[in-house]
């Protein structure tokens, strides 16, 4: 096989190793992209689950508003929030695989049970005139929490499964990144090892035969014609060199034979013998010129000089050696040029692979940062939802207590009206003032509910709650002024309503307790 073809095969192995490494890197990048896409889907599912949980809390707040105010507007809000809750659940069903859809159906069914027992049941109690019993449903120990707990548990189950899947996606993404980096490192090392091995083998395949041929030429120049030329039967350029050396050896053997024949023919004339010796000397000189030129060429080749050419004029019988040597070194120079070009290609490919590895590292860092930001946003959403639920329950307890005091005050006021029927003018004014006080109590309860809703919507400091609190204080001032008017009227009719004075005093104390509770 020619030397050039051997070199091409050696560097073909290097290119094959680089191609395999590139295929592994591309496969790892595809896996990394798939894992990143799965992580984004799980993050979206977590966000949708948090949205569903938020609108479930809004439903609870709207139910409390209706039971405390008996305003149908809040039933409309319940239905609107429930529609958004169900839409979020359907979106989750589309975002999650079928094997993880069971908690979604569980949450939807539990929400339907909650709506039937709490919302529809509460509306029925209000229509039957049992508003106080309906309010107790949403108290701290009421039945509403019992029905809403399965919904919250199902949503928590969805979020937990999402967290597990997200963790698995992140681990797969990290594994793909590590595999890509490992493929780059191992591939570069393998390419380097193969290149070194190919270079070593190619060098030995070129320099070893050259030094062998030089040894043969030196022995032949020293007169050793018994040498055996190993490699003369090769099919490459060195085989042609070996054949030329065999020709020189045979010529030297013939020369010795001729000399022996000359010695045997001592009867030849001196002139004829001198002519023969001159011919032999000339032939030997010509052979020495050819051998010296060939030795110089082989030495230059061994030292890496492939531009050297056999230019010395030689005898016609040595022209074939000259042409074969020049052809062999020309082919060798061409093969080495191909090797240099392949090495440049390998260096360029290695640079591109290194750049791909850098891009892979940066993409991994960016995706890790994006996942951290998403996790932080989900934590903030969860904290906001929990704070909203807690604030709504506290507001419900306070308003429920205030409503109880207001009902008790109503009983006292009715007794006072019975005692003061004799005074029509004063009674009419007192009834008007009591109506104002009842309106203030209702508005106070409604403002307290709005304060809870505003606190749920405010994410940081609850500025809306401060505005509502100032309105509550204004209503409390109006209650105090109404109480003063009642005292003035009762003072004007002291002789007629002695018992009424005592009852109105109790009314003032009950109203003061309402103001204190609302202010707290």
Description:
Helices cover 86% and strands 0% of the residues. Among the domains are: 207-339, no CATH class; 420-520. The chain is an all-alpha fold. It contains eleven helices and no strands. The radius of gyration is 53 Å and the shape is rod-shaped. Helix 5 (144-221) runs antiparallel to helix 7 and helix 8 runs antiparallel to helix 11. The protein starts with a helix and ends with a helix.
Topology:
Elements: H1 3-69, H2 73-95, H3 102-127, H4 131-137, H5 144-221, H6 237-264, H7 270-302, H8 319-419, H9 424-457, H10 463-492, H11 498-519
Radius of gyration: 53 Å
How far is the first residue's CA from the last residue's CA? 101 Å
Helix residue percentage:
over 70%
Supply the helix-strand structural class. Answer: mainly alpha
Low-confidence stretches: none
What is the 3D shape?
rod-shaped
Task: Give the topology string: H per helix, E per strand.
Answer: HHHHHHHHHHH
Tell me the major beta sheet. none
Specify the oligomeric state: single chain
Number of strands: 0
Tell me the strand percentage band: under 5%
Features:
single chain; mainly alpha; 11 helices
């Amino acid at each position: 096989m020619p030397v050039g073809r051997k070199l091409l095969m050696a560097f073909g192995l290097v290119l094959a190793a680089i191609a395999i490494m590139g295929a592994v890197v591309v496969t790892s990048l595809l896996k990394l992209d798939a894992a990143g896409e799965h992580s984004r889907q799980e993050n979206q599912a977590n966000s949708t689950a948090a949205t569903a949980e938020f609108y479930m809390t809004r439903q609870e707040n709207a139910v409390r508003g209706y039971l405390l105010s008996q305003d149908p507007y809040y039933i409309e809000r319940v239905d609107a929030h429930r529609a958004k809750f169900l839409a979020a659940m359907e979106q989750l069903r589309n975002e999650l695989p079928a094997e993880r859809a069971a908690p979604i159906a569980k949450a939807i069914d539990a929400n339907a049970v909650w709506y039937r027992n709490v919302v529809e049941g509460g509306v029925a109690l209000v229509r039957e005139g049992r508003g106080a019993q309906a309010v107790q449903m949403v108290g701290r120990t009421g039945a509403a929490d019992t029905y809403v707990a399965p919904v919250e548990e199902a949503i928590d189950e969805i979020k937990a499964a999402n967290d597990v899947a997200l963790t698995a996606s992140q681990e797969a993404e990290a594994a793909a990144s590590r595999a890509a980096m490992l493929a780059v490192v191992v591939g570069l090392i393998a390419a380097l090892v193969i290149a070194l091995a190919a270079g070593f083998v190619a060098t030995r395949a070129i320099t070893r035969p050259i030094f062998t041929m030089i040894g043969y030429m030196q022995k032949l120049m020293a007169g050793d014609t018994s040498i055996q030329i190993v490699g003369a039967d090769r099919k490459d350029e060195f085989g042609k060199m070996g054949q030329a050396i065999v020709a020189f050896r045979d010529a030297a053997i013939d020369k010795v034979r001729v000399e022996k024949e000359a010695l045997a023919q001592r009867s030849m004339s001196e002139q004829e013998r001198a002519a023969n010796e001159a011919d032999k000397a000339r032939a030997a000189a010509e052979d020495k010129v050819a051998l010296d030129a060939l030795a110089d060429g082989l030495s230059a080749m061994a030292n890496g000089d492939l531009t050297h050419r056999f230019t010395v004029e030689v005898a016609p019988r040595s022209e074939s050696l000259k042409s074969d040597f020049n052809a062999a070194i020309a082919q060798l120079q061409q093969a080495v040029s191909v090797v240099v070009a392949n090495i440049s290609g390998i260096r360029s490919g290695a640079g591109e692979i290194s750049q791909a590895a850098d891009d892979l590292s940066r993409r991994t860092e960016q995706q890790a940062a994006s996942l951290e930001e998403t996790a932080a946003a989900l934590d903030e959403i969860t904290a906001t939802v929990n704070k909203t639920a807690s604030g709504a329950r506290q507001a419900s307890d306070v308003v429920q207590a205030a409503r109880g005091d207001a009902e008790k005050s109503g009983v006292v006021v009715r007794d006072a009206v019975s005692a003061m029927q004799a005074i029509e003018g004063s009674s009419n004014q007192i009834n008007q003032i009591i109506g104002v006080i009842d309106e203030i109590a209702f508005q106070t309860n409604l403002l307290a509910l709005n304060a809870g809703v505003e606190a749920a919507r405010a994410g940081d400091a609850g500025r809306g709650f401060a505005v509502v609190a100032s309105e509550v204080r204004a209503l409390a001032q109006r209650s105090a002024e109404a109480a003063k008017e009642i005292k003035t009227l009762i003072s004007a009719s002291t002789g007629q309503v002695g018992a009424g004075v005592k009852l109105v005093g109790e009314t003032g104390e009950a109203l003061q307790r309402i103001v204190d509770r609302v202010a707290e």
